[in-house]
Amino acid sequence: MTGLAVDERAQRGGPTWYRRAFSAMRDLATASPSRFAVLIFSALILLFTALFSLPIMASDGRVTPLPDALFTAVSTICVTGLATVDMATHWSPLGHVLVFIGVNVGALGVLTLASILGLVISKRLGLRAKLLAAGDSNPMRAHGGPVNEGQAVRLGEVGQLLATVALSTLVIEAALAVLLYPTLLASGVDPLTALWEAPYYSAMAFTNTGFAPNAEGLAPFAQNYLLLSILMAGVFLGSIGFPVIYALWKHHWHVRRWSLHVKLTLITTVVLFFVGALSFVILEYGNPKTFGTLDAWDTTFQALFLSAMTRSGGFSIIDIGEMHESSLVVGSMLMFVGGGSASTAGGIKVTTLAVLALAVWSEAKGRPSVSVFGRRIPSDVQRVALSVVAWGATIVALSTITIAHLTRAPLDEVLFDVVSGFATVGLSTGLTQELPDPAVFVMAVTMFMGRVGTVTLAAAVAATSRTQHYALPVERPIVG
Predict the structure, then answer these.
(1) Which residues cross the membrane (predicted)?
(2) How confident is the model at residue 383 (pLDDT cuts 50, 70, 90)?
């Protein structure tokens, strides 16, 4: 009788443990999508760690040590670009393919990926998952209180937005690869090698990762301004974020139809791009190891390229370790800001900086509210922006202190590489490849926390959200 019952259960849908596990994942995907997102990213990192450890993935046919395999998996899935091994020579062709797949999976974003998998598991997106996905992919985020008509319409477009993320990634990377192929041929790369390097470089540019498939990196292309410009364009498209790409595709250049998020992202990105380039020109103009031996045109272009890469691109022509300490500080500041929300870039995001700058300006002017372009920014958005900066600064500070203690390396180099890891940039002074194993694990955790996002991580850690039905008496402490 027991055997018949087991057979009957198997015919109805498989083993009991399988159905329970599937049901548990479905409940987690709908009840707590932020925790589900962290779980998915963690599972992907463990999977890729195991794959990178296989002898077939290494060029020498040996097992890659666990710290290096784990760090590479985190750097790949989190689209960071830092490495503890020589990425061009350590991995076999199959290993390079795994890196290529990993960065594209990571580029979908932690919330977008979790939403898609949650949709597959639960057969539908629950309201909480839709709100979370809309917050990551939609500039018209729904906050507490009544949801206006514009937000309701966009909330219904979450499925279309998620499809746009995957489609735009495929289309943009393909277009970049087509443009890169002839430029690689013009630089002397043989046609067969260029057939692989073109899509590889395009993926590393759009995902803002910065890995190079060749041992020399971008050094052979230092004078190929067309190729470098294409890479900059790819980094820019990846860093502005999928909501901006979606808005530009839908409304083209009808500026009046752009949301406040799109305007703030584009304006802040352009301003930081030129301010960063100008800072590097001023600080590195007399440095013979970077810009000092270049003419005016080369200096200007290389400064623009470096400014674009510090936003999260990760490619580099000059030796970052030879830059002045003042330049490393500027680079750390640019990396900490990062790119746009729901993008392949990391950092605290440009809109976070814009919101805080507008709040400071409004406070200095004595205005009762923060407004720009005829729109008022609610106080909860300002609190989220402040929280993101506080969490990000705390993570960077703790990681910097820990790694500086473990390595006894110069503080400016440690800070630069830690910020690069947190903001998933990939630029390095050379310190990362020399880290001892304990520091490697610390840097891996920093990259993970920077990629999943401080807000998402905080939401995943929070056990419950409680509603307070009463207000406490007001008392103003002295601030400042």
Answers:
(1) 36-57, 97-121, 161-181, 225-249, 261-283, 333-361, 381-407, 439-463
(2) confident
